[in-house]
Prior knowledge:
By secondary structure, the protein is of the alpha+beta class. Helix content is 52%, strand content 7%.
Amino acid sequence: MESVVNGVSLVLGLVLLFLLISKFIILPKKKLNLPPSPPAWPIIGHLHLLGKLPHRSLAQLAQKCGPLMFLRLGSVPTVVVSSAAMAREFLKTYDQIFASRPRTLAAKILLYNCKDVAFAEMGPYWRDMKKICQLELLTPKQMEVHKHIRLEEAYCMVKSIRDKCEGGQPVDVHSHVFALTRGVITRMVLNKTYFTSESKEALQFKEVLTESFHLHGVPILGDYIPYIGRWMDIQGYELRMKAAGKQMDAILDKIIQEHQDKQLRISKDQTPLDFIDVLLSLRSKGDYGHLSMDSIKGVALDMLAAGTETAAVTIEWALSEILLNPSVRKKCQQELDCVIGRERKVEEADLSQLKYLQAIVNETFRLHPTAPFMMPHESTQDVQVAGYDIPAKTRLLVNLRAIGTDPSTWERPLEFCPERFLNTKIDVRGHDFELIPFGTGRRGCPGLLLGLTVVQLGLAVLLQSFEWQLSPSQELDMSEVFGLTVPKSVPLHAIATPRLPQHLYA
């Protein structure tokens, strides 16, 4: 009996050996025709090429390797797109294949195991969560309903700046525009200004939000070399993620508890429903079977974080460029005076007539894309693009910095020149791949209309209400900090001088 068992084991062993030899020696894998790639190092691949500002490093590398590059970031196959034509191929022609998301360590820890909208993998869950956000918060009807909120918060910001600009001292522009966007989005999502500017909660929310966006964007060793990075946490990022996640979770728990308590008295005081109320109601009704409490937190965090951070960063970059280009400020203020005058405050209805202001915003998106790689995409199957083989589970990075400064598309690409958008049909709504700050296709940002409106309105009230200048001894720092978004490394401070009648600041 033992000899029979030994014989069977020997046969199975020989079969297994033959299969292994067939796979790795006799029948080698078909050689893939991958896109151009620079030389790689063992184990880390091309990670060493990312540098402190990967969007700039890879834009320079694309000048040598071309608009489609293949990189191996540790064990993660990655393609980097650096031209509008290539972006169209991946995000339009093959949109469905590249519409999923990689499950990054940051998304797992900070976003409840990818239970949000932005980082959810392609599938029924993502479609349901996106549908909820679009129907309950981001429709044109909801935009109209919340119009008064945006105006009130914009002029709350103006009054706050007016109160602090006495004596010619520079004001903290960064803090004021962050308060604007935070006020708008918390009132839309939570039905009240949840964090007042001076409160400890507001500072904590701002700090944890900034930390989270940074951790979502930096290269995490555990994502690329998991068998080393995951258990060693050499960079210390995982520890920071867990700390930030714990703080944000405590904030969201408090918000949700308040809403659950409110639900008990809604029938008595007729309190209007906000976005969190709607999510809790949908969960209790069972309309969406996979809408868990973690889902509610993840989706709410998407709305709060994206709506606050991205618009604030863009307004700050726009005003920084305006300070460096006085002629741009003068032209924009002349337009504001011509369209609106100085006897009333700008309103949202005026924005469509402010063509030069729109051009300033578009030029800011081109030169300072808020999220320079958009959100990372991932292929769901093998595909051939532009004659090259792209394997399944390949990460896609679309370098908006490279596309926005491509000399084959833009004249004087490194200059801030809003005039370039006065005689072009290129806009930011996802149809023109030369300028896609909100993404495009299936994974395009559902909050495009809200984000664009807040940026244009915020910049309009700042330029209508004040003259802006740097203090004589000040040198404007235009350096960046890399993350999921790319804010200024040194927050903007500038001198504001009122330019409207006193009663308009009340």
